[in-house]
Structure prediction request, 142 residues.
Amino acid sequence: MNTKNVDTFIKANSTPNSRSGANYVYPKLIQNTADYFEYQCKGSERTPYTITIELDGDNVKATSCNCPYHYTGICKHTIAALNTLKNDINSGEILLLFPIENQENSNKLKSNQILLKDNLLDWDSIEEFQSDTIKRQSFGLG
Prediction:
């Protein structure tokens, strides 16, 4: 995923005040699929807010948050969750999995991406990925 698209989405759909406020919000990933991410974070309400992010390839397709924010653009919780997602993808904390239909682009996969075969991920693939990642880090290659 091109995480610059996340920055573009945030800038196009938020206000400077919301972006600034997002620096003090700490969402936690609760569950996810390949293109859907659900976060929770504490807010002023008694129960945590739930933030959802839906991706469509390299783009943010939709977001939602159940906080009481009713102003222009997305809220600070959504911005914080998008930034967390972006940082976790860039650091390799979240692996993006691509089905075999994208095989022509398999040589363009980043270090935190694994090409799925038959939409299955097996332990050999995970161990190979981990081994390659450790080797790259040992030699300062990424």
Q: What stands out?
A: The radius of gyration is 17 Å. The CA atoms of residues 135 and 141 lie 8 Å apart. Helices lie at 4-12, 16-21, 76-91, 123-138.
